Task: structure prediction
Amino acid sequence: MIAAPDRTPLPREFFDRPVLEVAPDLLGRTLVRSTPEGPIHLRLTEVEAYDGMKDPGSHAYRGRTRRNAVMFGPPGYAYVYFTYGMWHCMNLVCGPDGIASAVLLRAGEITEGAELTRSRRRSARNDKELAKGPARLATALDIDRALDGTDVCAGLPSPLSILTGVPISDEQVRNGPRTGVSGEGGVHPWRFWIANDPTVSPYRAHKPRRRST
DNA sequence: GGGAGGATTTGCT
DNA sequence: GCAAATCCTCCCG
Result:
């Protein structure tokens, strides 16, 4: 018999572990974004781990700044940053207070409230593309820096929380190099996704940008 | 489906 | 100044 999904939010202890344990364990869980129009549910299908100050791919590599301060705090909080002049990306802070590790939420499947996301994702040609990529995910769920530092373990109602759900089996987890990470930080196979899931974003190696003419 | 080029602004060196 | 944990449109095949 199949157990019903557990709708309690993941407790803080879930995030208070090494980030390389937490990242694959997040796959298949449901991120709940509560909005005035109603809840949006996102089943996580792809994530990336950023492992502390030693990780050259991490925003924490060059130390604490105002931008990345949440990464250095306690686990179970959202770190939301702005990049490329246009986009937001969301992470979940892991490990104990003082260790700047986090998991980037890269893609997922909208399982409830898709109609609330389509007006923000006009370029999506089908529902699989609504949250296929970290900035698309944040756009679909109306996530911006106002949510930086949000406690995702506070319990409902909260702007953001993660339902315990039903974890997926290890056999369904794949891993490989991180996407779009420059330099030596890109070599770590710390991107995790669900095998054969159509909402996983395509792999793209980092490409330095040329100056405009 | 994949590559090139542009968009657009913040944060840090 | 310039790079940035990206995405979109256009074009090609």
